[in-house]
Design a protein that fits this description.
The complex is a heterodimer of chains A (147) and B (491). Chain A has helices at residues 13-25, 38-46, 72-81, 99-107, 120-137, and strands at 6-9, 32-35, 60-63, 90-94, 112-115. Chain A is an alpha/beta fold and 147 residues long. Chain A has one domain: Rossmann fold. In chain A, strand 1 (6-9), helix 1 and strand 2 (32-35) form a beta-alpha-beta unit. Chain B folds into three domains: 3-177, 2-Layer Sandwich (Beta-Lactamase), CATH 3.30.450.20; 202-341; 344-489, Histidine kinase-like ATPase, C-terminal domain (Heat Shock Protein 90, 2-Layer Sandwich). Chain B contains nine helices and twelve strands. Chain B has helices spanning 8-63, 67-75, 148-179, 181-200, 214-303, 310-341, 351-365, 385-402, 460-470; strands spanning 83-90, 95-99, 116-120, 123-130, 139-146, 347-350, 371-375, 380-383, 409-418, 421-428, 475-479, 485-489. A five-stranded antiparallel β-sheet of chain B has the order 2-1-5-4-3. In chain B, strands 7-9-10-12-11 form a five-stranded mixed β-sheet. Chain B has a two-stranded antiparallel ribbon with strand order 6-8. In chain B, a hairpin with a 4-residue loop joins strand 1 and strand 2 (95-99). In chain B, helix 1 packs antiparallel against helix 2 and helix 7 (351-365) crosses helix 8 (385-402). The chains are: A alpha/beta (147), B alpha+beta (491).
Chain lengths: 147, 491
């Protein structure tokens, strides 16, 4: 199991709570850093000294799209534009399944696009599968040392 | 210049001169010929008279072979200047005496020819027998007269004729020039008028009628035609003006309409954009709270199971069920909205293959069900592939769903010709519906069965109808309770 941290970019506190619970109930014990808007996400990732990812980038980013200040796609662009996060696995986790969002997400380099189900049981299943896949099964890119 | 291109004046004058000239020529020729004939006759008569006189006088000299006498008698011929040669032959045909004395023997014929008068080599030759009345022939008188008189007469006649002809022709020319005006002037006037009208395009001008002859008729007809042309021209101008006004009017109206249409377009575009934004935010914002409702209800169920009685658990289950149902409703509504928004890309779509694929998916997700499916081959239509797929999916899923309670479920997809158009038919032998409520079938969220009997949101058929309508087709349904349903549509 990839021991790395998970960055959860999500503005809805309910969804944050549900996600954390879903991960926990599936025994995914990686540390989860939560950024409640796009600006914070960028700060955490690129802020340097004192930020959660100052030493090393997260194992995977769970990215919502509709965020205040800076929206999810802009965060994604920023991630892909920076050298040491260029290969960072990003999973778009959002309510929207609008085709243009999917297209844009993949175009900007997201690795995966998952629509959050309303049914919590399904949601938990999804979280489990995401965790199993991205932290266990997926061969992560080499994590560059940042400091 | 060709004859037909001569001006009429010239033609008329020429004709008159030609005719006059010809007539004069013929007349002159006739008179000349008559003169010549007359002079010849006269000459001949003269010669004959002279000949007989000399012959009578010569009888004695011939009888007595008196040469000197004979010469003397012949010399009397001096009086007649036209006689150029004369000769007396005796009865044996020998030349006895000749005249004029300067003439050589060789110049006269050696022997007299037959009696009589004839014209030879431009001379009149007379041969008169010399004999006393009742006595045998004594000899022959040969007279040769020139034709100078004749030729002189001829020349005179010719000269007179020519002179007369010249004067006459001149007179004829002047007269012709004068009188041809009577014919040509009206014609020229008419021609000039016609030319003027043609050049100035002024159809109010009329030609003046100068007489009741054929030209008068022509002038009348010409004027009549002008009158008609003038009327038609006026009418034409009138309708042209009218047309122009209509055109301007139409242009104005078109401009107004175009403006209207542009305005509407802009409004529609704005509405569509709003709809887009609305649908987008709906898809995102409405679902999140539902997720929370469902999620935390579930957490309650999981974490506080022991503290909840059956009623409590039941309540929470209902909360969850309701929020999930709402999510489905939202999704279905979104799909319906997308159908309206979507751009139609028309192409030839293989409906048979599409139906087979959909049935395949249904079988895969419900492997436990046995359903007989009959899909006709080669069903194609022109339309948007994605939208048509959604429509077919909805229809076939319905068939699949509503035949769930049938032991032998049957679904068919085929085409038929009706009223000259192609009708696609999807039928099943499932639960069917009461025809009484047929018009409610396609309403949004309208259902004819309860959720307990068959799950569903009641949007499927509304979506199908919207898709069919967007393709310009119609859809209708027939069915009976427990005897299946048939959905027919055109595209």
């Amino acid at each position: 199991m990839n021991p790395g941290k998970i960055l959860l970019v999500e503005d809805n506190p309910d969804d944050v709570a549900l996600t954390l619970r879903a991960l926990k109930s599936n025994n995914i014990t990686n540390e989860v850093i939560v950024a409640s808007d796009g600006a914070l996400a960028i700060e955490y990732l690129f802020g340097g000294e004192g930020t959660p990812f100052a030493d090393e980038v997260p194992a995977v980013v769970l990215l919502d799209l509709k965020l205040p200040k800076v929206n999810g796609l802009e965060v994604l662009q920023r991630i892909r534009a920076t050298e040491d996060t260029r290969l960072l696995p990003v999973v778009i986790l959002t309510s929207s399944d609008e085709e243009r969002d999917v297209i844009q997400g993949y175009s900007l380099g997201a690795n995966s696009y998952v629509r959050k189900p309303v049914d919590f049981v399904e949601f938990t299943q999804a979280a489990k599968q995401l965790g199993l896949y991205w932290l266990l099964m997926n061969q992560a890119p080499p994590v560059p040392r940042r400091r | 210049m060709a004859l037909s291109d001569w001006p009429i004046k010239k033609k008329l004058t020429a004709i008159l001169l030609l005719i006059s000239g010809l007539v004069l020529l013929l007349t002159s020729a006739a008179f000349a010929t008559y003169e010549v004939m007359a002079v010849r006759q006269t000459t001949l008569k003269n010669l004959s008279t002279v000949g007989r006189v000399i012959a009578a006088n010569s009888t004695a000299s011939l009888a007595f072979a008196n040469e000197a006498d004979a010469k003397e008698i012949l010399s009397a011929l001096r009086a007649e200047p036209h006689i150029v040669a004369a000769g007396l032959y005796d009865k044996d045909g020998r030349l006895f005496a000749l005249y004029p004395p300067t003439l050589r023997r060789a110049d006269l014929p050696s022997a007299p020819a037959r009696d009589g008068y004839r014209f030879e080599r431009g001379y009149v030759i007379a041969l008169e027998p010399v004999a006393e009345a009742g006595s045998p022939r004594l000899g022959t008188l040969y007279l040769q007269s020139d034709m100078k008189a004749v030729s002189r007469t001829l020349r005179l006649s010719a000269a007179i004729g020519a002179g007369v002809m010249a004067i006459s022709l001149l007179a004829a020319y002047f007269l012709a020039a004068l009188l041809q005006g009577g014919i040509s002037h009206p014609i020229l006037a008419l021609a000039k008028t016609a030319q003027q009208i043609s050049v100035r395009q002024d159809y109010s001008v009329r030609a003046t009628k100068l007489g009741e002859d054929e030209l008068g008729v022509l002038t009348d007809a010409f004027n009549q035609m002008l009158g008609r042309i003038e009327d038609q021209d006026r009418a034409l101008r009138g309708s042209q003006d009218q047309l122009q006004r209509h055109a301007t009017d139409l242009e104005q109206r078109v401009a107004e309409r175009t403006q209207e249409i542009e305005q509407r377009s802009a409004e529609l575009l704005a509405a569509n954009t709003e709809l887009d934004a609305f649908a987008y935010s709906v898809s995102h914002d409405l679902r999140a709270p539902l997720r929370s409702i469902d999620g935390f209800s579930q957490i309650l169920l999981e974490d506080y199971a022991s503290q909840l009685d059956d009623a409590g658990r039941d309540s929470l289950q209902r909360v969850r069920a309701a929020s999930q149902r709402m999510a489905t409703l939202i999704d279905d509504l979104l799909k319906l909205a997308r159908v309206t928004r979507a751009e139609i890309r028309t192409e030839v779509v293989d409906l048979s293959t599409m139906a087979r694929e959909i049935v395949g998916e249904l079988r895969t997700s419900n492997p436990e069900r046995q359903v007989d499916v009959a899909i006709s081959q080669g069903l194609t239509a022109r339309g948007d592939a994605r939208l048509l797929r959604v429509a077919l999916e909805n229809l076939l899923r319905n068939c699949w769903k509503y035949t769930a309670k049938q032991p032998r479920a049957q679904i068919a997809f085929e085409a038929a010709e009706g009223n000259g158009e192609r009708v696609f038919v999807v039928r099943d032998n499932g639960a069917g519906f009461d025809m009484q409520y047929a018009d409610k079938l396609f309403g949004v969220f309208q259902r004819l069965h309860s959720a307990a009997e068959f799950e569903g949101t009641g949007v499927g058929l509304a979506t199908v109808r919207r898709i069919i309508t967007r393709h310009g087709g119609r859809i209708w349904a027939e069915g009976a309770v427990d005897q299946g349903a048939t959905f027919s549509f055109t595209l």
